Amino acid sequence: MAAELEAEVPAFDRGLLECSAEEIAAKWLQASELQKEVYQHLAYYVPKIYCRGPNPAPQREDMLAQHVLLGPMEWYLCGEDPAFGFPKLEQANKPSHLCGRVFKVGEPTYSCRDCAVDPTCVLCMECFLGSIHREHRYRMTTSGGGGFCDCGDTEAWKEGPYCQKHELNTSETAEEEDPLVHLPEDMVARAYNIFAITFKYAVDILTWEKENELPGLEMIEKNDTYYCMLFNDEVHTYEQVIYTLQKAVNCTQKEAIGFATTVDRDGRRSVRYGDFQYCDQAKSVIVRNTSRQTKPLKVQVMHSSIVAHQSFGLKLLTWLGSVIGYSDGLRRILCQVGLQEGPDGENSSLVDKLMLYDSKLWKGARNVYHQLFMSSLLMDLKYKKLFAIRFARNYERLQSDFMKDDHDREFSIADLSIQIFTVPSLARMLITEENLMTTIIKTFMDHLRHRDIQGRFQFERYTALQAFKFRRVQSLILDLKYVLISKPTEWSEDLRHKFLEGFDAFLELLKCMQGMDPITRQVGQHIEMEPEWEAAFTLQMKLTLVISMMQDWCALDEKVLIEAYKKCLTVLMQCHSGFTDGEQPIVLSMCGHSVETIRYCVSQEKVSIHLPVSRLLAGLHVLLSKTEVAYKFPELLPLSELSPPMLIEHPLRCLVLCAQVHAGMWRRNGFSLVNQIYYYHNVKCRREMFDKDIVMLQTGVSMMDPNHFLMIMLSRFELYQIFSTPDYGKRFSTENTNKDVVQQNNTLIEEMLYLIIMIVGERFSPGIGQVNATDEIKREIIHQLSIRPMAHSELVKALPEDENRETGMESVIEEVACFKKPGLTGRGLYELKPECTKNFNLYFYHFSRAEQSKAEEAQRKLKRQNREDTALPPPALPPFCPLFASLINILQSDVMLCIMGTILQWAVEHNGYAWSESMLQRVLHLIGMALQEEKQHLENLSEENVVTFTFTQKISRPGEAPNNSPSILAMLETLQNAPHLEVHKDMIRWILKTFNTIKKLRESSSTSPVAETEGNVMEESSRDKDKAERKRKAEIARLRREKIMAQMSEMQRHFINENKELFQQTLEELDTSASGVHDNSPVISDAKLTALGPEQTRVAEHRQVVMCILCQEEQEVKVDSRAMVLAAFIQRSTVLSKNRNRIIPDPEKYDPLFMHPDLSCGTHTGSCGHIMHAHCWQRYFDAVQAKEQRRQQRLRVHTSYDVENGEFLCPLCECLSNTVIPLLPPPRVLFNRSVCFINVFTKCTSSSSEKMDQLQLPEGFRPDYKPKNPYSESIKEMLTTFGTATYKVGLKVHPNEEDPRVPIMCWGSCAYTIQTIERILADEDKPLFGHLPCRQDDCLKSLTRFAAAHWTVSSLSAVQGHFCTLLASLVPNEKNENLPCILDIDMFHLLVSLVLSFPAIHCQDFSGVSLGTGDLHLFHLVTMAHIIQILLTSSTEENGMDQEDTSSEEEVAVLTLYKFLCQCTGSALKEVSSGWHLWRNLKAGIMPFLRCSALFFHYLNGVPAPSELQVNGANQFERLCSYLSLPNNLTCLFQENSEILNTLVESWCSSNEVKRYLEGKRHAISYARESNKLIDLPDDYSCLINQASNFSCPKSGGDKSRAPTLCLVCGTMLCSQSYCCQTELEGEDVGACTAHTYTCGSGVGIFLRVRECQVLFLAGKTKGCFYPPPYLDDYGETDQGLRRGNPLHLCKERFKKIQKLWQQHSITEEIGHAQEANQTLVGIDWQHL
Ligand SMILES: [Zn+2]
Ligand SMILES: [Zn+2]
Ligand SMILES: [Zn+2]
Ligand SMILES: [Zn+2]
Ligand SMILES: [Zn+2]
Ligand SMILES: [Zn+2]
Ligand SMILES: [Zn+2]
């Protein structure tokens, strides 16, 4: 197809390319009717360029359009070659001081919390870095696309509006200057012409609706071709579209994915090209297929000419956008053209037309013209205003269109409101001139038409469509917020007028909410259906900020405030006209007071939680209280119209409802009510709900007789009977009443007392109490931190945010709390300062029940720790503002005293049910509050004030006849010694003490005499004192004990958390020591220890007894007993890889015998170190397997482990495992017989020219001898099991125990695992021995012994063959020709394989040389090869570093060797004169090999490590050599047998590969290999965001990737979690990350999801987990999901921890643990990430 097109196209192109832009432009300049000329040109050429076939060819189209269509326009515009014209324009143009950069999706944006006028003001990264806000408190977010940089907009920033770059452009700006003066006149005229024609053309064609006609253009195309155009909608899923397309247009899945992706991105895509019928047929299939459940996908058959012109129309708009970039003058002309009214009057300008057609356009077209608007209209200050007016006038229509449109708001023109309304001057102008507030609110109301008979909103029985509309209409509230966000600094009459008009509309809105969703208590049966409640609360929640902002506006102008107050009051009275609603009045009387009220029971009649009008009035009342007028002339305020009982009625009902719900009276009303009550108190709503209800009650009490208030309150709580009838309580308890009712009443009494506490105590809002705003926030923080220390984000969540998303917390937090930095895990915490605890109020109104009891517990504990009494008395409070001052009298009112007295009486008599401790606690708190109040009054006494607050007097008076009840004080004294009130004793004591203090104060001020109290209240009898002393001592002892215990458990917990791994070890140690195994210190003198060879130190092997974790039975590890095994996990690994591009081509044919030194893929074995019987494990494994199979059949769920692949969890620690390693006694002892090995060796080497099979068998070699396998059947079976597992995982092949590669894989895994551990030790700078965790130590020991024993279960001849081939790589012979040269062999792998395969030869050799001698020879040989390898590849640069003058013996020797090498290589090697450098390089290069070898022989032969190697110290190299039986001067090795060795060295150097390397034709690994690290991450996280935002999907041509994800191993950025980058892997579709792990990490991957700021671990296709990122904000917290937006910086320690997990091969294990802990992780479709 492609070839066909290419052949066809050039013919067209040639004709088109002959067009001359210059000539056409010249013709146009002469034309009398320019529009006609241009249109003719377009009509002819556009269809020849665009839409020439089924698939778009954007590059060709762009090229031709530029040449044939745009070129002439540019020539015409410039009047000369645009190549000269445009640069000239650009030069003449003054650079703009506005940045205006339009944000890409995912680009980082910055807002300054100190200086931005509102949070929508943002900067691009470049501007931000050049601004002063860098040093401020800033917030970072990622853009959702759209929107632009506000740098240079002086209205957006309180300070620093320009960055350095844009500052430069402001110098000579005269704002009002007309930019047209910079353009030549004739150009202005031409620009008008061409802009008008092209803009109109584009608008006409895009808004064209006819099918076979074009606007003012001829249809030139003769043969009709059509497109079947598929449009985007937000209803159908990707999968549905893909599936449908495959059916409808018969395409492959890949093509369908391509179509669907484009449709999703651009909003439309043609899916078929051809004649009308052909296209129509596809259309009907698509419609039919998608219309079943939902409305069908939108498909349209379109004439190709129309599609062509539309494509060019879009191109033109983009072109216009770029042309006006050259000059502000051109921009202004375009704006003028766009806003010019057409002949049809209102709404006929091009801009209007586009806006009003917006919802009918497809996504791609909308994007293009929105961008054009942003770069033209919004960048020109004059036209921005005109455009804003057009936008406001069309507002209603645009919003209605948006309601019907199914695209998200970001693709709607309605979304531009944020750009316009947030500009303060524009917002103000639109309010006063266009009455915008009213328009928005009215539009909003128009879209919520569903009302009940009282005209209130009704959301019950909402249809799906209405619900959808309701979601959309919420965006209007956002617009209202934008308009209000910047408050006026001065008020004009006009603004007042229009604001109040808007306020009226707003009240109308609130009126529709007042009393909505009323509820009635359900009795008898439970409700059948949970009523709808969320919609009403959503509305309330969204409006909360707007309501607050309305109040803020009112607060700014006294006139406005008073007007608003009156309006609000009027509306409230309308809502509750004559609040009686026909209910009968009743009279309540108590203690000689009586009041008239209505008969109303919350538990029987309708009640609503929604009272926004009342609450707004409460808010305004507080504001009034703040005004000067309220202090001086309160009589001038419109307070006389208020009827306090009417004001309090509804808020009181609402609070009673909460109390009753709490008392369990509304249980049958279901969860919807519980949820409503929850949100009523929740931080998101409470500011304009619960808080304001309390304010309203405070307002009411302050304006009425408190006795009246209390009686009404008792009546609403349905408690009036109890307190107004004497002895009611007594009767209650004696009568055999329903316990539930008593319980209920008790709770109600508690709740009522709590409410009184709140009414009196909550005075921390400015206007209620004499406080400022910071006092309020401080108090909130103090109470949050009283519960426990909290992280910054937790505190933020607990505090209400204002419209700028600020809590105000940062400004005060330092005063009340100390910050504690986080460790390696966890987060930074704020702790309350000790001096702030005195402000703690147990009955703080924002505590939830749970928080209250936690806080109480915490505070009491603190007091005990400080050895104070545990009373939690009420704190001293700030005084009320004058308007609320009289409120305080409620505490000393008769009814209050009566309530207190009654409850105390119950407590004194404490007989039966009608009483509870928390009731008493609350009464004590109230008494405490009253005493605090009186004390403060006395302390702040000034001459003219008379103290009217005389609580102490009143409580000292005994009750009057006929009761003659004792005084409250007397009762308190009685209770002080009541044994059943031990808990409250401290509080009562505090009250009595305070009472005495007040008494003394009164005496000293002698204002009014206090009635003498009888008795020595504070006197304690000596017996009491004694008791108290004993108690104190006991308490101290208890505290000490407690502290120690707490410390211990804290330490333990901490320890376990921090050192999970260590903890497991300790467990093991406990395990093993319990079974008495490790007597790990064979008494060997510190004489020379040698790990191998004939000189090897002999160690007596200890009996090893271990315990099975499954059956708890002990057993000794012996050759002939049942096998014991270790749980183990084998995985492929690229952690050491030096070449991540190497892949194993065909695992079935791959020969792993030689490991390449790039270590590109190894096999790692790890173990948790837990031991089982082989048969116990087998039984366990079978059971797991059977269970999983049943479970998967039944539930089709995944588990964290893959049973089919042999995976299981360690039964003890749940560590992921996939096989077991047998435990073995040291194997070498078994095989060793004194055999004369050296003969074989020398024979082999000297007869290198002979062929192997013709090799004359040395004396004593008996090939017919079959050695007897010493192991028990059970051990043999386990040897095979583990060997096969290693083979299967390492090569990724099907298990086959016969395969000759099995032993190779075993040796390889042993070598590779030792190498990884050596690297970890080296990186951490730990000594080689004595510092490995037990589990690794055990694992290495078992692994090495296993690998050494494995040959006994393999084919002897195969192993012998391997040995010969391995040896031949160093001792060449002719049979093995194609062996790798020594540059391409990893010497440690070679050593391990040689040593471990050698016994297979040795067992048939009876000549008497020991195995140890053989080992030593092999070791020396490989070491020498490695030395040559290092010398050949070391890139010694002889720098001028200090060197000693005298050359040591080693240096001389190595120089000699090097010279010999030069000779061998024909002088291709660089000349080196310094032996010092050579020796240094050699030592450094060979160290890792020696360290690995030491580990290997240590585990193989069991020789303990010399103590010098267990510490870091000098001479490590010499110690190693000695342990390994090597001469310190390694080159000495070459001097024994020098003749043979010279031949060997020569043969190594003569390889072609070595020659090629020395000639620079190939690369080779040099030594020492550096450890691999994860990539370097930048300190500032926004660098990563920026990097990711510049990254585009590699597969879909420059598109932004949705989930850019960074591989932390190699630094590749990937397009994750997206269809575009899915690939097929082993027959399954996988996402980019999973695909990447297969090449980069052989299945394991560590990624950073940049947008989410989240680390992702992947292993295989089904395993994965998220892990906290190594980035922290200043508060020591991570921000997964980037929700908070605080600046993030790299935490190096945490990153190191991740790196360590990787180096230790613990990623898979980590995933396993995470998945076991959190089952939802198992369900995630990891393979598609
Ligand atoms: Zn910028
Ligand atoms: Zn800037
Ligand atoms: Zn700032
Ligand atoms: Zn067992
Ligand atoms: Zn375990
Ligand atoms: Zn990678
Ligand atoms: Zn992609």
TrEMBL record:
It comes from the Eukaryota. Its EC number is 2.3.2.27. Residues 1002-1031 are annotated as: Disordered. The keyword rRNA-binding does not apply. It catalyses: S-ubiquitinyl-[E2 ubiquitin-conjugating enzyme]-L-cysteine + [acceptor protein]-L-lysine = [E2 ubiquitin-conjugating enzyme]-L-cysteine + N(6)-ubiquitinyl-[acceptor protein]-L-lysine. GO terms for molecular function: ubiquitin protein ligase activity; zinc ion binding. Keywords: Acetylation, Chromosome, Coiled coil, Isopeptide bond, Metal-binding, Nucleus, Phosphoprotein, Transferase, Ubl conjugation, Ubl conjugation pathway, Zinc, Zinc-finger. It is found in: Chromosome; Nucleus. A zinc finger (UBR-type) spans 97-168. Its main location: nucleus. Residues 1020-1031 have a biased composition (Basic and acidic residues). It is an enzyme of class 2 (transferase). SMART domains: ZnF_UBR1. GO terms for biological process: protein ubiquitination; ubiquitin-dependent protein catabolic process via the N-end rule pathway. GO terms for cellular component: chromosome; cytoplasm; nucleus; ubiquitin ligase complex. Pathway: Protein modification; protein ubiquitination. Residues 97-168 form the UBR-type domain. The keyword Lyase does not apply. InterPro entries: ClpS_core (IPR003769), E3_ELL-like (IPR042065), E3_ligase_UBR-like_C (IPR044046), Ribosomal_bL12_C/ClpS-like (IPR014719), UBR-box_UBR2 (IPR047508), UBR1-like (IPR039164), UBR1-like_WH (IPR055194), WH_DNA-bd_sf (IPR036390). Belongs to the E3 ubiquitin-protein ligase UBR1-like family. Ubiquitin ligase protein which is a component of the N-end rule pathway. Recognizes and binds to proteins bearing specific N-terminal residues that are destabilizing according to the N-end rule, leading to their ubiquitination and subsequent degradation. This is E3 ubiquitin-protein ligase. It comes from Anser brachyrhynchus (Pink-footed goose). The gene is UBR2.
